[in-house]
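User: I'm putting together notes for a lab meeting next week and I want to include a structural view of one of the chains we've been expressing. I don't have a solved structure, so I'd like a prediction I can at least talk through. The sequence is below, exactly as it appears in our construct file.
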Amino acid sequence: QVQLVESGGGLVQAGGSLRLSCAASGLSFHALTMGWFRQAPGKEREFVAGITWSGRNTYYADSVKGRFTISRDNAKNTLYLQMNSLKPEDTAVYYCAAEHSTATIVAVTTKSYDYWGQGTQVTVSS
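Assistant: Thanks for the context. Below is the predicted structure for the 126-residue chain, given as structure tokens.
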């Protein structure tokens, strides 16, 4: 059974930091491109960051570039998102997603991903 379980969300003041984790099971984690997406109330789900199977290539949405860092530990089947200098507009439910791919580029559309977690809420107060 495939499972992606996010954790690490919460309430933080603007300028603060959070680290999200996504534990994967039932998948060959090392053969997956992984991504973080987010969805704010009344808005579409949007790409935040992605990382290729090897971890060598990463890609970020312009809105988070320089503030967020995506990483993975293939030995632990875990994906991370370090979020620094958080802003109120970062408030959303954050989802991790997995794509069966060993390509060297990261997909940025929701339809490219095969599996999704249940999401974790991140709230940034001003």
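A couple of points you could mention at the meeting. The chain has a mean pLDDT of 96. The radius of gyration is 13 Å.

User: Perfect, that's what I needed.
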